[in-house]
Design brief:
Elements (H helix, E strand, L loop, with lengths): L1 E3 L1 H9 L4 H8 L3 E4 H12 L10 H9 L1 E3 L3 H7 L8 H13 L3 E2 L3 H4 L9
Helix pairs in contact: 5-6
Length: 120
């Protein structure tokens, strides 16, 4: 199983994954932190992305994902990371730490972490 950050999920929805990302995702079950759903909704609300949650393809993909909750363990882990970023990215990274699930991300701060398990 892999934990996808918001950018990777958007790239998967848009068909804009790199070959290495496509290869990693092809052989794994996908999961996301619950805050990724919130980020998607906010990006739509702010007109920063176009995403139709009613679209069958989008709904099918989102419904197949394992969605990890923002719970006390994740909240605590987000304060113990070895990098500082926006709160959503910290929660996404902390989700990978708590559940020991490799994170697939392009974000340099998260990729440079010595704590966050990364998909390679």
């Amino acid at each position: 199983m892999l934990n996808l950050d918001t950018q990777i999920l958007l790239c998967a929805l848009d068909g804009e994954l790199r070959a290495s990302e496509r290869s990693l995702l092809a052989g794994s079950r996908w999961s996301i932190s619950s805050i990724v759903l919130w980020e998607l909704a906010k990006l739509v609300q702010l007109d920063r992305i176009e995403l139709d949650f009613e679209d069958r393809r989008v709904a099918r993909l989102l419904n197949r994902l394992q969605v990890w909750p923002l719970d006390l363990d994740v909240a605590r882990a987000s304060t113990r990371l070895d990098f500082s970023s926006d709160p959503a990215d910290e929660i996404i990274a902390a989700t990978s730490v708590v559940h020991n699930i490799p994170l697939l991300t392009r974000d340099a701060k998260m990729r440079n972490s010595k704590i966050v398990p990364l998909a390679m």
